[in-house]
Amino acid sequence: MPDADVVVVDRAKYAGNVGSILRHMPILGGVQTLFLANSAHRSGSPYPPYPRSFIKEVMRVSMLQHYHEFEARFCLLDGGAEELMHLLEMLKSRGFALMMLENVEEFEDMPVPTQDRFHYCSIYDKASAIRDVRAPIAFIFGGESGEPMPELFTTCDVGGFIPSHEADHKNANQHEAEECENRCLQRMHSCNLSIAACIVLSERHRLRIAQQHEHARSFLRCTELVDGPLTFAQKGSIWQSYLAQYFQGICACATWLNICGIKISK
Q1: Domain extents for the chain?
Q2: What's the predicted TM-score (pTM) here?
Q3: Which Gene3D superfamilies does the record cross-reference, listed alphabetically (predicted)?
Q4: Which architecture does CATH list for 6-161+192-210?
């Protein structure tokens, strides 16, 4: 079953990175829509947000024109920051959680009032929004050619980062190793855009597969229990729980069909 997640890339610098994300999206969980924006583009400018050569390179790397079975969708936003904010507001109104992906330093450097309101954590944290595979997420990657747009910190619901180790402490003593572990665990000074997107989408895909396996095991347990000596009310309660999960999947599929027909307009 396809999911309803989408990817939003803002201010991309290298067309190859955008094309690589497009090429791998269907493999990494069926995320099939990528919105490319340029918040630095001035409204009313006679020039497009990205030159034609940039878009041609995106299409070349993505291989979309050769492998139609990938079914990836590419949407270029013509406007600047206003168009991007309009897209995010529309996605939020459709039930999407807006998740901003950045280096942890960008979150740490937020103004204090924003830090008190804005929640961010590692994508592998138990509190990460990507663990709720029932809710659609708009993954927002940006700032490849500069710092993220400040409005994103107030518009997005949550933030996420990829933890990393920046030093080798095999030869350090235990105390130094623990300090280095705590200091380095959350540091990601630089990560290629396409690699970062693939890491995030693959983790989301892994969590979704794990839940599908759990649903299958639950169904088998339900079947075994229903065949046993249970009362009619107990059987009905068990099947009601399973059918609720099933219809949640149908609703997610319907949401996906609506997203496939999105048209950005003011």
Answers
A1: 6-161+192-210
A2: 0.72
A3: 3.40.1280.10
A4: 3-Layer(aba) Sandwich (3.40)
